[in-house]
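Q: Joint fold for the lines below.
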Amino acid sequence: MNDHWKIPKLPGASAAVMFLALSIHANAQTPELASWNDGPAKQAIVAFVKEVTDKSGIKYVEPQDRIATFDQDGTLWVEHPLYTQAMFALTRLRELAAQHPEWEQSEPFKIVLANDYSAMANFSESDWTAILAATHAGMTTETFQALVKQWLATAKDARFHQPYTALVYQPMLEVMDYLRANGFRTYIVTGGGQEFARVYSQSVYGIPPEQVVGSSIQTKYEYQDGKPVLMREPKVFFVDDNAGKPVGMNLFIGKRPCAAFGNSTGDKQMMEWTQAGGGARLMMLVLHDDPVREYAYGPAGGLPDTKVGTFTQALYDEAKSRGWNIISMKNDWKRIFSFDK
Amino acid sequence: MNDHWKIPKLPGASAAVMFLALSIHANAQTPELASWNDGPAKQAIVAFVKEVTDKSGIKYVEPQDRIATFDQDGTLWVEHPLYTQAMFALTRLRELAAQHPEWEQSEPFKIVLANDYSAMANFSESDWTAILAATHAGMTTETFQALVKQWLATAKDARFHQPYTALVYQPMLEVMDYLRANGFRTYIVTGGGQEFARVYSQSVYGIPPEQVVGSSIQTKYEYQDGKPVLMREPKVFFVDDNAGKPVGMNLFIGKRPCAAFGNSTGDKQMMEWTQAGGGARLMMLVLHDDPVREYAYGPAGGLPDTKVGTFTQALYDEAKSRGWNIISMKNDWKRIFSFDK
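A: Joint structure:
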């Protein structure tokens, strides 16, 4: 939905890059953050946690108010060349095409079926809404969850030849563990689908479904053979992106986070809202500047189309002027994926 | 909103009943449920918890899935003669009247200002929406929370001469403690306002704001003097009542409860949804059948107007046929309020 449903041009050469740089460092000073280099990003995280948990300090935060929020796509896992959920939608559309011969003649479906990625890059929001309605609605929540689970178990990323759930950033898993070990509750606050992410949030991130805030479509309470079900309707209910993120955090959590992690303009208001709370605050943006081990886009250049991750130069400058921390994938992360050696 | 915003006729004589029956029983078998008589309701609760927590049993439930949901008005605290939040709305309307001389001439405001409760009893949903817009919107979430807090600190119920937050049912506080001691997370799932209940949920019920699911109005992310705020808009966003309760539970919790407590037709679908999950299940409805210590309405008769708590005879019969437990305030509760001796 919104920017999250914009599709980029598929990268050419870089999609074929298979070489994973080896990055071996020993003797990390903080074992909990073993995949982090000892640079400014790691130091900011450790200093923040120290402030929040120091009972004698003026920035001490009670455990019940230790809330940390994480954007998902591009912050916790790979969003290139396409958001994982969009990949699910396209796969499902192709599967359903046999039952819908009319799609061969109608946009936006025929573009997807022709694998015309450059045309998909220009899809409007209503195109994506049509795809969403065709692939994400008209079934119960339980059926939807089962479809997502099944797809995730078999689908693989074209570049890394890994299941999508293996493309999470190991350093971010460590940050979540580190925060939880220090009394924080970690939340996903994603522009992507809430019901989608809840399928795997516990197993992949250690985050229970009730701590996933995201975009949603309407559901309707109905009876099937006398049994109550929640039917997914082809109608957007809530868009948890941009200004929707503070709205969603207030709605679903009812507390303001003191730490927030993002990677794009869709996270800007989450950063602002977090910072405006006063006291100890940590705002961090992941910069994709590692074309060898992952991708480079946004201010780090590299890929020609930056629609996928709208980390604009303006956001970068704003982060610098407001004291939001930049996480350089290239410089701050020893290891990016758990399968990196 | 919806049924929750229907207003009853003010009871005549019973509103003046001040006598609180003394009910002293010693040696309760389960200390955690000290205010419960040892009847079928208490036995159902204890048997359910035993099943859920018995690791060797077939109905064992993992702690992360032990979710119990509680309706608020009429289930956790007194809803008669009017929901507490409606009382707040009317008080606030009267306070604001000086700045709105036009209200003297326009419905529904002039009816409220004339204290015409019998006319209020016939208010339509759009009347209540107008009152809601005038009293609950046009301010930031922080301002709203401060107003609620301030009002709750001073307002008192006319019959009991107690703050509204003292009119919670002691046996229900004990059930929540008992469930939490057995690994459950307790949620409020109310047709009333989510932001309203979050103001006092922690101090009154021991339930943190993030475990309060309720009705909500739209909020808008804005800037005031460069500082981000969430403005409350005069537009309903979500109605967490009737079929909205399963929708809300799926949306906000993402897990199906295995125990649910309610007291009216607004809770029927919550009961159905809870029961349909299979395994150990506990569905309980509070019956207001104690005109001496609290009120009697619904199938227990008593008050002439049952709009306030729509525990219909049909719901009572359905509960009996489906195995939902009835909690008789008169017979199952030794003590109703903490101030009862």
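Q: Anything notable?
A: The beta strands of chain A are 67-70, 185-193, 212-224, 227-238, 259-262, 282-287, 325-328. The interface with chain B takes residues 64, 141, 194-195, 198, 202, 208-210, 212, 216, 219-221, 227-228, 230, 243-244, 246-247, 250-255, 269, 272-273, 276 of chain A (CB under 8 Å).
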